[in-house]
Fold these 4 entries.
Entry 1:
Amino acid sequence: MSYSTENIKNVSIAGHGQTGKTSLFEHLLFAGGVISRAETVESGKTTSDYSPEEIERKISIHAALAHIERKGKKINFFDTPGSSDFTGDVILSFRASEFALLAVDGRSGVQIETIKLWRNLDGRNKPRGIFVTRMDEERAGFENVLADVKEKFKTGVVPFTMPMGSGAAYKGVIDVLNGKAWFAQGDAPEKEGEIPPEFKDAAAAALERLIEAAAEGDDTLMEHYIDKGSLSPEEMHKGLIEALSENKIVPAFAGSALKNSGLVPFLDFAADIAPGPAAARDSGKNTNGEEVDVPVDPGKPLSALVIKTSYDQFSGKLSWIKIINGKLSADSEAFNVSENRKERIGKLYVCQGKKLEEVKELFAGDIGIVAKSATFKTNDTVTAGENALQFVPLRLPDPVHAVAVNALAKKDDDKLGEFLVRAAEEDRTFRYSFNAETKEAVISGMGELQINIILDKIRANQKIEMETHVPRVAYRETITKKAGAEYTHKKQTGGHGQYGKVVLEIAPLPRGEKYRFVNAIFGGAIPKNYIPGVEKGIVEGMAAGTMAGYPVVDVEVKITDGKYHPVDSSELSFKLAARNAFREAMRQSSPTLLEPVMSLTVFVEEKYLGDVMSDLSGKRGKILGQDSVGGIAEIRAQVPQAELLRYSIDLRSVTSGTGSFSVEFDHYAPIAGKLADEIIKAAEAFKVQETEE
Ligand SMILES: Nc1nc2c(ncn2[C@@H]2O[C@H](COP(=O)(O)OP(=O)(O)O)[C@@H](O)[C@H]2O)c(=O)[nH]1
Ligand SMILES: [Mg+2]
């Protein structure tokens, strides 16, 4: 069945691991009548954790999509992984949803991933709510969690539902807006009833907060409220919808997935109040490269964005697609703007977890799947015709962990490469490349877990044996003082000889300027037509420095003089002369090694702060700053890359698995002494051989 734009909602369920997202998703599907029985995560049979790797490990690894019909609305739900290793699929679900529901464990409150996801949503100005989960467990506290949210995010939260009791005394939730209670019935669906007398006061106080929140959405409503002291139900709805779509309020919900509780009132909220695509806008780049707003609009010609690519054992390649404008029809023709190619659309599906259901068309705002597409890849823009804007791609974090990999049997290397490319297509935070400089195939991603899962899958399915090791660091070399040298390349063979003389000076440039070539030849000492040869020689010389064979950077090379021979000179002679002159000068210029230094941000619970700091100082780290909010510390530091190659493993052991970090290249810094000696020694075996042509 196909739904029109105003009847579609897209909600991503996200949050820290083990907060109960997958269970919530499963039991929402049960409450919404999609499945007749909710399965436990432990059974490996839930709707959303369906891949073999998820069933084996009992955690969510990939985003899953399903939909529920409620009050004539189609609500698409994403279940997303909680581990930062799989953040790519959380980000794509945020990109495709107009509302995010953050699951927060009623016992632990805001955790590290909650904070990171909250910031990510801030960056998108995306409306969000909090679902306080696991209220049936001992020590669960709704008010504690709200206070925690308030402290950590400096924002008020407005309960739309609130729990009746907690732990063993948990009875269900109150639907504040509609003035009803929903009583938990264990395995059976929750039941509507009167608010019990002991919760009446709390419900009335919560309603008061909700009315104020609704008035905040709209100035005229605020006036009504001040005049009359209350708002009508219609006014309430209108005000709340506005306040939410402008991201002015954060609604809170409570419940217990396993007790099927707090789900129906949330579905009502999602259907009635949560922002949907109808009023949303996406952003793209037009043909002039300017960023433009693209309102979701069913009336315009088709435009859509491929948000995810997955491979299914039976159906093959699946391209997940969000329709932004117009509609996408099965058995039609579309245009892939990113590839500049036509694409034949065959069958079109929506899904309930792994189950695909064929549909004839999908309207703006909806999310579906195109099977076996020839050209689609994640981030591609799909339109009705050529020459259209392209949607802004998913904004993904840089990899934090890398390993070098190779197949044990040489013959398997190509096949391994092929499946690594596919893995990178499926998860855009995973990258695979051949580093020509270090001569290694390097894969990188968001953590050891992500990388191991990908490699395990290839090992198991493709029967490829492989080995991994810590990747080599891409060091650089540079010079610290001016020097000059000259070199004459001269060869007298039978026929033509070779002759070229180059005189040059080299000088250090500021860090990051890489290379400057200055031709200061007077009076044609080297004829113009040989200068390109000279420059080639310099470039070759700089490709492998004299210390350890690493590329040379931040050097100015000035050619001051030379000599040629009318018969024997050639481009090659000058190239070789220049290369050797450069090397000679470099040896005289007090060269030094440079190492890449990364800028690192670490999030840890405060109790681990001391250990993390001392670990960082042992890693030659320079602490730049530190903030602490509500028990969670954020540390910013600069640390040499060589010390961070296994940081995802080290941080895990220092913080019992709770810490997380992001890292990006910052600058190159000189390195000397014993460390430099070791690098030079290690590079000996690796040094680019000097070849005489
Ligand atoms: N008692 C109780 N346990 C829950 C509830 N929701 C989830 N759990 C349990 O919490 C664990 C993690 O749940 P899961 O849904 O996989 O969390 P996710 O990592 O956020 O997807 C599982 O053992 C669930 O059975 C709940 O409402 N009550
Ligand atoms: Mg899960």
Entry 2:
Amino acid sequence: MIPLLDLKRQYATIEPQINQAVKEVFEKQAFILGSEVEAFENDITEKFQTGHAIGVSSGTDALLLSLMALEVGEGDEVITSPFTFFATAGVIHRLGAIPVFVDIEESTFNLNPDALEEAITERTACIIPVHIFGQMADMEPIANIAKKHDIPVVEDAAQAIGAWRKIKGRRAYAGTLGETGCFSFFPSKNLGGAGDGGMVVSGNPDLAEQVRRLRVHGSFPKYYHHTVGINGRLDALQAAVLRVKLKFLDEWTEKRREHARFYRELYDMYQLDRFGVSFPKEDSDVYHVYNQFTGRFPERDTLLEYLKEEGIGTAIYYPLPLHLQPCFAYLGYREGDLPHAEKAAREVMSLPIFPELTEEEQEIVVGEIRSFYER
Ligand SMILES: Cc1ncc(COP(=O)(O)O)c(C=O)c1O
């Protein structure tokens, strides 16, 4: 069996540190916010030089709180990618705003900046680029267009912690270019907690303060409310676990990148191009962190079944683009409106790429893919 993700292998490498950190929280019996969460927020601001970091209850709530802090609401339009996890658009809808989907680039699966400007109207209140699968969207043109129209950008960096892109000769980390950046610590993420968790990062002190208040029901000072927020706090237990794991993030990310390189070697060796398979492309000047290794595969659904029978775990992220989701039928999109997202949904499949995966396992995965096409 080669699973898509095996968190037990990761836990085995850090078990004493995790257990100790959890024990310390239990000894203090302080579970809500407090020094663990603050220390973790400081770790993140230091690592990514973000100015402010606010630990929140999930990646979804990081996005929701960002939009709330920007006062996005009823009737506003928010532009995003149709090829992302549902949460990106779900939070827009929840605030009474209207998701506006812009098609993706064929090569990276990220929002296509060339298609962005024509989607902007006088009602556009925010743009949410998503750094899908761990590769940053093309932020320079996106930021330029946003600036020209004076529209704030919220980065959905849920899958991309630690990713960067060279902009004007400097490394710009995922999450640090928008008004806010949103991370998810869902267990399958590159930095995954022991449950749900998320983080909003921002260089804007006023916006950060507003997120901080909104995560505690909008309370400031305590028990006084000028705005209505949510219960959106990161747990102290999650912060304790995540602080241990953060120390290993760079090393784990490098392993993911090594696996991506080895997959590409195997691709050449097994001549998968002959069968029309393509493996993910890295844009130039990017540091892809491979939360997912997502390629395109002819006869994708039959291949997935075949690999499942051979004991190989894969997944389809995502089988139906958001503009065609039944709950968004009211938006009036039709099949064919966003052809690149729709094509990706038909063709993509993600292969195992977790840090503890072995080369032998990768050889089996690619060998089985080859056997399928030669059957
Ligand atoms: C792109 C994207 N956005 C948002 C989220 C939401 O994060 P969470 O599951 O922590 O709420 C996720 C992950 O699940 C995601 O992959």
Entry 3:
Amino acid sequence: MAEWNQPLQVKQVTFENRIVMAPMLPFGWPEKDGGMSEKTLAHYLKRAGKGMGLLICQALLVSPENDLLDRAGAYKREHLCFIKKIADACHAGGTRFFAQLAYAGFDASGGGGRKVTELSTEKMAEIGRDFVHSVRLLKEAGCDGAELHCAHGSFLNAVHSPIENTRQDRYGGDLEGRLTLLKEIIEGCRECIDDSFILSCRMGWTETLEGDIALAQAMEKLGVEMLHVSGGIPADRSLDIPEDFPYNAFVYTGTRVKQHVNIPVTVVNDLQTLRRGNELLREDACDLIAYGRPFLADPDFALHAAEDPDYIGCRKCKACQFRTDGDRCPGPPARK
Ligand SMILES: Cc1cc2nc3c(=O)[nH]c(=O)nc-3n(C[C@H](O)[C@H](O)[C@H](O)COP(=O)(O)O)c2cc1C
Ligand code: SF4
């Protein structure tokens, strides 16, 4: 049982509080050569160290391959500079900083893209090495951890999914086989994951809660040190949520996973207010509470929520403007 403002220690990394800014790519703000534009950097610097225990930046690419959106990456030494700037700003304000990592071009949640069955065994191994290289760069840039993007139909999510991954080689087969690439990534990162650096996974749900629990436990066994639970493959699934559970299926899944693992679990999606997130912490249903759009609409969401736990940062527009051009976000509703 915890309160939002109680610290959490994972190895030698202390999170000053339990509020997390979830990873969010501001779509429509093109970057160049995998670097981060002044505009995107300013977006992060405006939020860094502003009252959250952990800030996780958008999925940075581990390689320029398949990048149709001109996204920022973490695959060249030149990228260390912007990552370091965000890390330093976070640390100056008492916030821990993770960067999320992803491999582009796969969207098994319905957006098209390539299939993991198209890749040769050697290519799979090469992508694994790209992840390891990026994790090393994050560590060098001063991040407190890396979050491997294994949710939302992303590449690693597809590799872990029995629906998408019907490969016949060592990267496919049963759950253990489908986690071979993750195992290789973790083994490759061993020497850079010390007590001051955390390896986390954003885990995507499976077809069933039993499948989610099995996946989470297998990830923990491989050495994943924190889990951030979100949607996966299939993108929609029917789930019997108790009628008196006042949160959605994403959060419910995270709370169920939490009961079956020994590593910290972050829940996310439509938590909206600090009061709602804090209830979950009090019930020991999770360890950290993540907010996405509230931080997009209001860079000071955590500071405002600390003053008023019912503060709502985001208007929940039908289509979030940050999915096309964040400049059009109307910002937070007027405060009472
Ligand atoms: C504009 C936008 C971009 C996003 N980009 C990412 C991303 O890069 N990686 C990721 O794992 N989730 C991404 N997400 C999902 C968020 O991390 C979060 O799970 C989602 O917004 C639900 O939380 P919320 O209801 O508090 O906004 C994105 C969400 C939005 C709105
Ligand atoms: S106010 Fe609207 S555009 Fe802004 S973050 Fe919220 S949903 Fe997105």
Entry 4:
Amino acid sequence: MKRLAVTLAVLAALAVARAEDGAPLYAQKCAVCHGKDGKGSPVGLKMGAKDLTATKLSEPEIAKVIESGRGKMTAFKGKLTDAQIESLAKYVKAGLK
Ligand code: HEC
């Protein structure tokens, strides 16, 4: 029983760490165009990027845009793992928090 409790605690800690991965990834891969606050960098705005904090897309739709790209946005399939794309979609959906 004790071992089960330890295993669950470890899994919970891992889940939290995974969910938080979105922020550094965003800063690395997305902020160039979308800005640190998601409202769009000068470069991104010129390409037609919209305010990410105001997106109406669902989490799976956001994941799809990240994977396949849209308009002038780069596709990240092959550059990010599925888990990373998922964390980013969660992070964006949560209003970059
Ligand atoms: C090279 C610049 C660039 C980079 C890098 C970039 N984007 Fe984008 N993104 C855009 C542009 C431009 C659009 C608008 C596309 C369109 O609809 O024409 C967009 C659109 C989006 C949308 C759709 C928003 C909506 O409401 O329709 C999401 C979500 C998004 N980007 C997330 C991300 C994430 C997450 C990353 C990092 C993995 C990222 N983008 C990296 C330029 C970029």
